[in-house]
Write a structure and sequence with these properties.
This protein has helices at about 1-10, 30-45, 50-65, 70-80, 115-120, 120-125, 130-145, 155-160, 175-185, 190-205, 230-250; strands at about 20-25, 45-50, 80-85, 95, 105, 150-155, 165-170, 220. The chain is of the alpha/beta class and about 250 residues long. The two termini are about 25 Å apart. The chain binds adenosine-5'-triphosphate and ligand L45E5XJ5. Adenosine-5'-triphosphate binds near residues 30, 31, 227 and 231. One of its GO terms (molecular function) is dCMP kinase activity.
């Protein structure tokens, strides 16, 4: 993957180095997005939240009255939508729906976090043609970022999107801890329902990609017993350790 990124960057004649990649996967609510974002900020890296793209695609398909189970139609939507995201600063996601429906960009940053989208998103992420197209988009966004490093987080980043990334992490926590954290964000939420939703979404997603067990060479970070700051530090420690090892290797 790093070679793919290097090729993509270098063929434009810029000669710019490919960004250092930090790949992070994990189940729903494990802290991937928030911990990755904080770690990226401290490292001076960008952050690519790949789940946000799957969520935005589900939003766009629902908005366009497309059957989410129709692989061809959902994959075609990726060819015709305009997806814009930020890798640094405040997270912001914009989707431009196909011209037949409207050319105006929609800021979906908040809408894609709605439990209604969380409940439907697995219907679009299960399609191989959708995954191939989005993975291509993720690699292009990273290659064109001109950043020194990018943290990419999702479900299949350590295994499919960036299997050669110099840092690969599986971030997990017990279902009860994940549900308690998620419920804490939603005033009045029923903890039991949040737990059931998390377990149901993981069960659907894991049919497509294994994000429960670390692949060979992937570092497991279990945050069940860690607070937020300790979780961020755990990621930074893995990155810094990989950087030290790489520096030692290059001195040999
Ligand atoms: N170690 C931690 N200690 C306490 N709270 C945490 C920790 N890690 C994450 N959180 C909190 O847990 C919640 C869920 O985290 P986050 O949204 O980053 O998870 P996620 O894995 O990206 O979830 P999803 O896959 O559903 O998008 C957030 O409120 C976050 O601040
Ligand atoms: N690499 C990825 C990332 C996400 N998904 C799917 O998107 C959903 C939302 O992701 P969050 O990280 O925001 O929870 C997730 O439930 C998966 O269906 C994916 O398949 N691959």
């Amino acid at each position: 993957m790093e070679d793919a990124v290097n090729d993509a960057v270098n063929t434009d004649g810029s000669g710019a180095a490919a960004p250092i990649l930090v790949a992070i996967d994990g189940p729903a609510g494990s802290g991937k997005s928030s911990v990755s974002r904080a770690a990226a900020e401290q490292l001076g890296f960008g952050i690519l939240d790949t789940g946000a793209a799957y969520r935005a695609l589900a939003w766009a398909a629902l908005e366009s009255d497309i059957d989410l189970d129709d692989e061809v139609l959902v994959a075609e939507l990726i060819e015709s939508w305009g997806y814009v995201t930020t890798l640094v600063g405040e997270p912001a996601i914009e989707v431009v729906l196909p011209a037949a429906i409207g050319v105006k960009g929609h800021d979906v940053t908040d809408a894609i976090r709605d439990p209604a989208i969380s409940g439907q998103v697995s219907r679009v992420s299960k399609h191989p043609a959708v995954r191939d197209r989005l993975n291509e988009m993720f690699r292009r966004i990273v290659a064109e970022s001109e950043l020194p490093g990018v943290v990419i987080e999702g479900r299949d980043i350590t295994t499919v999107v960036a299997p050669d990334a110099p840092v690969r992490i599986l971030m997990t926590a017990s279902p009860e801890v994940r549900a308690a954290r998620r419920a804490g964000e939603m005033p009045g939420a029923d903890h039991g329902q949040v737990l059931a939703d998390i377990i149901a979404r993981d069960a659907k997603d894991v049919l497509v990609v294994d994000f429960m067990n670390p692949a060979p060479g992937v570092t497991l970070i279990d945050t069940s017993e860690l607070d937020f700051g300790q979780s961020v530090q755990a990621v930074i420690d893995v990155v810094q350790s990989a950087q030290s090892t790489a520096a030692e290797e290059s001195e040999k």
